[in-house]
Specification:
alpha+beta
Length: about 120
């Protein structure tokens, strides 16, 4: 009788340990996914903030002042894990600036946006 109670208790204990191991594995996956989502959100927030800064500079200085825009942005940019690039182009009527924001460790593009500015002042 004593042997069967011990064996039953041991089986129950093994089942409980397996249940907790499975539950902890699921919880770890949830926490890792939450961390990844938080990082993606942080990257997107930085990207939108710096795209807004780039747009303000572009509309203020115009596409012909590329050096002024790059100097202004680079003097304020202090995010070690991120980088950005600016590409300028124009046609007869508009000037364009494409802003790309990267997460540097993975060389992953987080955000890209093209701004358009009319060449002539509208009165």
């Amino acid at each position: 009788m004593q042997k069967s109670k011990s064996a039953l208790f041991l089986m129950e204990l093994i089942i409980v340990i397996l249940f907790f191991a499975l539950t902890s594995a699921v919880c770890m996956r949830v926490f890792i996914k939450a961390h990844d989502v938080a990082h993606e959100t942080e990257s997107a927030n930085y990207a939108v903030l710096w795209a807004d800064n780039a747009a303000e500079c572009f509309y203020e200085f115009g596409g012909s002042s590329r050096d002024m825009i790059e100097t202004t942005l680079s003097s304020a940019f202090n995010l070690p894990d991120y980088s950005y690039s600016l590409d300028f182009s124009s046609d007869e009527t508009f000037e364009y600036m494409t802003f790309k924001f990267f997460y540097t460790p993975k060389s992953e593009e987080v955000y890209a946006y093209t701004f358009k500015r009319h060449k002539k002042e509208v009165s």
